[in-house]
Write a structure and sequence with these properties.
- The complex is a heterodimer of chains A (112) and B (116).
- Chain A is an all-beta fold and 112 residues long.
- In chain A, 0% of the residues lie in helices and 54% in strands.
- In chain A, strands 2, 5, 6, 10, 11 and 12 form a six-stranded mixed sheet that branches. Chain A has a four-stranded antiparallel sheet with strand order 3-9-8-7, with no helix packed on it.
- The model of chain A has no long low-confidence stretch (mean pLDDT 93).
- Chain B contains one helix and ten strands.
- In chain B, the strands form two sheets. In chain B, strands 2, 4, 5, 8, 9 and 10 form a six-stranded mixed sheet that branches. Chain B has a four-stranded antiparallel sheet with strand order 1-3-7-6, with no helix packed on it.
- In chain B, a hairpin with a 5-residue loop joins strand 4 and strand 5.
- The longest helix of chain B has 4 residues.
- Chain B is globular.
- The termini of chain B are far apart.
- The chains are: A mainly beta (112), B mainly beta (116).
- Chains A and B meet through strand 5, strand 6, strand 10 and strand 11 of A and strand 5, strand 8, helix 1 and strand 9 of B.
């Protein structure tokens, strides 16, 4: 079945550091891939997505590239801010199948 | 509405009592999902509604959990005889028909349930 494996946290970085959160997946066919972010006390917000291989999703300085050859969708940001502190979830979905499969989440803390 | 609305935002209940959690999806979204997020854990799928089709209840953890969706819009998740292990954040999400898997969902802010 479909599954998502995320880099385990928690991750702690200093402000302006480079961020990578790894995400790999197992799926049949051609899934869509997502990163969701959950700020403290809030629900999940869609951060970015990619619906086909080699697509790059980007938003708020974050980027992730859909790599079919390595079955990965790693999240990156060149210079993190304190306001990026949150839990990040990688997820997978497929056309015609409604349910998303989520990774376990990675808690990111950015120190000033 | 403009977003997915959940109520109450917080609920404290005594063990053994029944609780009802409400979700009002985005207008026009025919697919509605309930997930549970226990402290420090990932998301656990509970139930999914699509239009007038029979719901996918495969994630409900026990027969104490049930959900309904009236008029294809508002949904209520009911937990009977609550237990302490039911304490979690209950998240609702919605999407356009047949688009959730390809384009993702919109989540509400969740209901934090505490069973004491």
């Amino acid at each position: 079945g479909n599954s998502v494996t995320q880099m385990e946290g928690p991750v702690t970085l200093s402000e302006e550091a480079f961020l990578t959160i790894n995400c790999t997946y197992t799926a049949t066919g051609y899934p869509s891939l997502f990163w969701y972010v959950q700020y403290p006390g809030e629900g999940l917000q869609l951060l970015l997505k990619a619906t086909k291989a080699d697509d790059k999703g980007s938003n708020k300085g974050f980027e992730a590239t859909y790599r079919k050859e390595t079955t990965s969708f790693h999240l990156e940001k060149g210079s993190v801010q304190v306001s990026d502190s949150a839990v990040y979830f990688c997820a997978l979905g497929q056309r015609g199948a409604q349910k998303l499969v989520f990774g376990q989440g990675t808690r990111l803390t950015i120190n000033p | 509405g403009a977003g997915v609305s959940q109520s109450p935002s917080n609920k404290v209940t005594e063990k053994g009592k029944d609780v009802e959690l409400r979700c009002d999806p985005i207008s026009g979204h025919t697919a509605l999902y309930w997930y549970r997020q226990s402290l420090g854990q990932g998301l656990e799928f509970l139930i999914y509604f699509q239009g007038n089709s029979a719901p996918d209840k495969s994630g409900l953890p026990s027969d104490r959990f049930s959900a309904e969706r009236t008029g294809g819009s508002v949904s209520t998740l009911t937990i009977q005889r609550t237990q302490q292990e039911d304490s979690a954040v209950y998240l609702c999400a919605s999407s356009l028909a047949l688009a959730g898997g390809e384009y993702g969902y919109t989540f509400g802010s969740g209901t934090r349930l505490t069973v004491v």
